[in-house]
């Protein structure tokens, strides 16, 4: 690159911060404004969060890895409202499948945490008499119509892997998006 051009670029770069201060303003906000057309596929917006419904039936570990491939994690329900929104969504679709969540008590049996944020599972959405760690083998939490007579989608603990009846679909939750807008004053 000719020496004069390099010097010119340095001068422009040197002036740029002062120039930008007057001519641009930036704004960062949580979420994606409704009037902004953004393709969030394969994630679907439900209430304030974005989810992917994995359709393969896999063990808990494979489910987690699948979510990580999309830069997301198995779903974590911080509030009962979030759980109810997902349950209503599945119900409206007539989807009676069972789905893995990020919850487990692999670290300490009997203490169920959401694996994505290490917070205790506090929502009261367990199926009756669950979690029961049946056979001493159930350490991962899924949701679905747990019993034949269940009319609500609820939580249950099941074997994380190595069990033919513990292969489920899964729900991934994307990180919370932020929208950065830059206004240019011409
Ligand atoms: Ca969540
Ligand atoms: Ca159970």
TrEMBL record:
Gene3D superfamilies: Mannose-Binding Protein A, subunit A (3.10.100.10). The keyword Membrane does not apply. Residues 46-169 form the C-type lectin domain. Keywords: Signal. Residues 1-20 form the signal peptide. InterPro entries: C-type_lectin-like, C-type_lectin-like/link_sf, C-type_lectin/snaclec_domain, CTDL_fold. SMART domains: CLECT (SM00034). This is C-type lectin domain-containing protein. It comes from Drosophila erecta (Fruit fly).
């Amino acid at each position: 690159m000719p020496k004069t051009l390099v010097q010119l670029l340095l001068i422009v770069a040197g002036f740029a911060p002062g120039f930008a201060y007057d001519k641009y303003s930036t704004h960062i906000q949580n979420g994606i404004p409704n009037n902004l057309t953004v393709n969030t596929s394969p994630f679907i917006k439900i209430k304030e969060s974005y989810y992917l419904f994995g359709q393969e039936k896999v063990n808990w570990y494979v489910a987690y890895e699948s979510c990580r491939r999309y830069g997301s994690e198995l779903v974590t329900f911080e509030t009962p409202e979030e759980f109810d929104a997902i349950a209503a969504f599945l119900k409206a679709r007539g989807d009676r499948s069972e789905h893995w969540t990020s919850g487990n008590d692999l670290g300490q049996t009997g203490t169920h945490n959401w694996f994505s944020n290490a917070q205790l599972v506090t929502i009261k959405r367990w199926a009756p008499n669950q979690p029961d760690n049946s056979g001493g083998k159930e350490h991962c939490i899924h949701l679905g119509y747990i019993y034949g007579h269940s009319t609500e989608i609820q939580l249950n603990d099941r074997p994380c892997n190595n069990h033919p009846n513990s292969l489920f679909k899964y729900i991934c939750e994307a990180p919370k998006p932020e929208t950065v807008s830059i206004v240019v004053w011409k």
